[in-house]
Specification:
By secondary structure, this protein is mostly beta strands. It contains two helices and eleven strands.
């Protein structure tokens, strides 16, 4: 199972002017990559793996999320295209706790070499993933959601809708 290669979309972002063109490119990329939403079995360990691809739109900003889960771990790729700002492009890794996916997002902004790492929380609701907003704190150079303040899922910018599978 292969994650979507968003770097192709990233390089062509400057040429894409309207959202319909972007959505068409995403659909083509999904079809070409052969990503499926469904289950496959790893013959060696008999573990079930699931791959899912999502898109979120907020005004002129878009986010593409490709996830692969198995053995209690969720990992994948997240590209956030921000209108008139540098894109955030990186990887997520984490796990579900109940109906909420908690991941670390390791990413770069634009062409910079600096690597950032932030926690993200995504609530699974009606088949969609809702990005949460919460207060964060850093301890010894690592950023966490503050445990004393709840994460808010109704003020977030992005709600990720599954892309159709083949």
């Amino acid at each position: 199972m292969e994650l979507i290669n968003f770097s192709i979309l990233y390089k062509r972002k400057k040429m894409m002017i309207k959202f319909p063109i972007l959505l068409s490119a995403i659909t083509v990329a999904v079809l070409l990559q052969g990503c499926q939403s469904g289950n496959t079995t790893d013959n060696k360990t008999d573990t079930v793996f699931t791959a899912s691809n999502y898109i979120a739109v907020d005004g002129k900003d878009t986010a593409l999320l490709s996830l692969q889960s198995g053995k209690g771990v969720v990992k994948g790729k997240l590209l956030i295209n921000l209108y008139n700002k540098e894109d955030n492009d990186g990887y997520v890794r984490g796990a579900y706790k109940g109906d909420t996916l908690f991941v670390d997002y390791t990413f770069r902004k634009g062409a910079k070499t600096i690597v950032y790492k932030n926690p993200l929380a995504l609530l699974m609701q009606n088949g969609k993933l809702v990005l949460g907003v919460g207060k964060m704190e850093s301890v010894f150079g690592r950023t966490y959601f503050r445990k004393d303040i709840p994460i808010e899922f109704y003020e977030g910018r992005f709600t990720f809708t599954p892309l159709p599978s083949q």
